[in-house]
Write a structure and sequence with these properties.
Length: 81
C-alpha cells in the first residue's frame, strides 16, 4: 500500500474531494494543514513549483494536485494498493 500524504487547507473543495475519495476507498493518508504554517506552505510551493492545494505525495513522490491525482487514477498510472 502506498504512503499517501496530502497538504491541504481545510476549506479547499479540491482537498475535500481527494480526501473523500481516499476515505471511500478505505485508504489511509496523512494530512498536513498548511493554513496554520505559512513557512511550511512557502517551502512546499518552492519544492514542488505548485502554487495551490491539495499537494499530493505517494511514497514521497509528488503526484500533483487534485486534477493530476484523478487523471493518474483514471489512467491507472497510480496504483492505490
Amino acid at each position: 500500500m502506498k504512503n499517501v500524504k496530502i497538504y491541504i487547507k481545510p476549506t479547499c473543495p479540491f482537498c475535500i474531494r481527494v480526501k473523500r475519495f481516499l476515505e471511500g476507498k478505505g485508504l489511509p493518508f496523512d494530512e498536513v494543514d498548511v493554513s496554520q504554517n505559512p513557512e511550511l506552505y512557502r517551502n512546499l510551493k518552492l519544492k514542488t513549483e505548485h502554487q495551490t492545494v491539495p499537494q499530493i505525495f505517494f511514497d514521497d513522490v509528488f503526484v500533483g494536485g487534485s486534477d493530476e491525482f484523478f487523471k493518474a487514477i483514471e489512467g491507472q498510472s497510480i496504483q492505490l494498493d
